[in-house]
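User: Predict the full complex structure for these chains.
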Amino acid sequence: MSTSHTSSCSLDAPGAEARTCATTGLRVCLTAQQFIKLNAVAAIVFLLLGGIAAILLALTRWQAVHLLPVDWFYRILTFHGLNMLIFWILFFEVAVLYFTATTLLKSRLFSKGVAWVSFLMMLTGAVMTNIVILQGKADVMMTSYLPLLAHPLFYLGIILVAVGTLIAVFNFFATLYIAKRDKTYEGSLPLVTYGAMAAAVIAVIPLLHGAIVMVPTFTYSLGLTPEPDPMWYRMIWWGLGHMSQQVNVAAMVAIWYLIAYLAVGAKPLNETVCRGAFVLYILFINLAAAHHLLVDPGVSPAWKIWNTSYAMYLAVLASMIHAFTVPASVEVAMREKGHSRGIFGWIAGLPWRNPAFSAAVLSLLIFGFVGGITGVTLGTQQINIIAHNTLRIPGHFHATVVGGTTLAFMGLTYYVIPLIFRRDFIWRGLARAQPWLFGGGILLVSFGMSFAGSLGVARRVHDIEYAGVYGPAAHFFLGLLGIGAIIAVFALLLFVVLCVGTVLFGAKLGERPMTDWGAAEKTFDAPPAGSLAHAHWAMKGTMALTSVFLLSFVVYYFANWKALADVWPVQ
Amino acid sequence: MSIQPPDKNWFRAPEGAEKMWIGIALVWCFAMSLMMPYWHFRGKQNARGETYAVSADDFWERTEIFVKDNQVGEIDGVPVVEPAPGSDAYLASRMWYWYPILKLRQGESYRIHMSSLDINHGFSLQPLNINFQVLPGYDHVITMTPTTTGEFAIVCNEFCGIGHDRMIGKIIVE
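Assistant: Here is the predicted structure of the two-chain assembly.
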């Protein structure tokens, strides 16, 4: 073989370490593929750990069951938060970044060595943190508010995960750079890569906050430096804690666009609008850290109002734009395929048996209707008085991070395993049911938490009976939380079994394309492709759905102002 | 296509229903933004975050003086303290109790100073569901006007260690 010394990083260049995907025809960088596999496997292991913790917690908060003793409840709660919110999500996001920067741009990954350093740092940090927690040396919750103090290795583990992730983000940006330099693609970034880039830009800021807050806390825990101020800690920690959730939002939205394309062939109606919405995320979402300080001392009302509104809610506007453009692109694609009966006729023709698609739809609905509406409302400066640190808060973020992000990631996995691990899924019938079970379970969890929280039940409490103020209604909703968690964790375990079973025992694809999950089909009388390209009012169903959404939003928002007006005057 | 580079001329203004939706959403965002300053001036429930720096020792000393001057009784060894309407009251928190029990009058206003003597705690008045954060080193002043009578529990709703769930205080309104 000739040793062709090509400087190009293109996957089409001679000698490129790549293969052609038998399903999509896209080129896959073999180095990226290796690290997508490693990060995805690690992600699913941490999801499993977090899921086992979840069921133990839910069955403890359900007062009739009250499973865990008090010390283990707080220990497992710390463990659950970090494994779910940080480890599972960050490892999966690194896999998404590597995929969108290589295959979609036809570029190789910038550096295998950097990818190894990132992966090993993240893995070491995550394992270290988990061991310290399970040893009972860090019963401080995920937030570890000073002056509560954990073992130094707890902070060191988190620092390693944060820095390791930053290194992966660097690898992503370096790949974008070499792809642009060598012109592996023409014109602008594809929308999905653009969304992933937005997620990566947003990620840099919280990860830096993580380093700023964790390094002095680590050195304080070693006795080397004085104690950081507890309010300073809260503010900077939430620069990590809340902003990192906005990374998930951007990654999740990018995945919605990706799955809408894979399952329905949807393309954005207006690339400018979709990209503009991602830019709004980058510019304004980082103010959201203030949501956690709304009833804190030391920060002024003006500061709270400006920051919690994300500067006039321009990041909320971004989500509301995606909430229109994603379903509208799907609807227009369906109408062009001939599913044009009435306002909602296109919905019947959607590929509901495709688990990636159903997961993406449920993710969008749960994120928007439950997570989004509750989030904006609870994050309203004054309304937070009747919500802060109650179960309403986890009721909100289980709808965004679990019903939204985690479900979208699960949906994408139904393509990642056949396309990257090249095995067909086992037990396809169960796979088709899994997103529905998980989405349904997490909705019950979210409702149970939100209503119990509205009745004043606090989050992060082992036993509510000492207060002596919670009646049968609060106990009913805690029971609902328990039942929802049983369903959701069952669906989570099913997901893990499906993934692990497929990677180990699924039919090898070799050079065959994957067995299709089902995509939207053309009817016999479909109009010619592109016939609706200029029909700017064709998405009647989306207009109806978004109207229902806005109405729900307005009603919930003002109902909460009314609830606030009913409590004692407090200033 | 979402996974391919867009057409060269992708930069264009929104049209039709998309444009209308962006307009409606923007109006709603502005409406929500304006609600907060409106309520700040016209509403009765606000988190103004009135705060003074205080050391744990100083705050404990002020609380002790406040209790000595205004004590009217005792429940289970915890003093019951009735501040004069309109005056300052002190509520100290530490692992794992609130001190003292406050006795207030309906319709009167009180400036309640809250601070922690050790770590973060959460003031959560139940079953009303009024919640404020309490931090060490910060004297957080909440002006409160009880409009209903009865016994109210102060639940700690910020995790503060193994005895967190038993950290229950009391406010009595007559």
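DSSP finds 16 helices and two strands in chain A.
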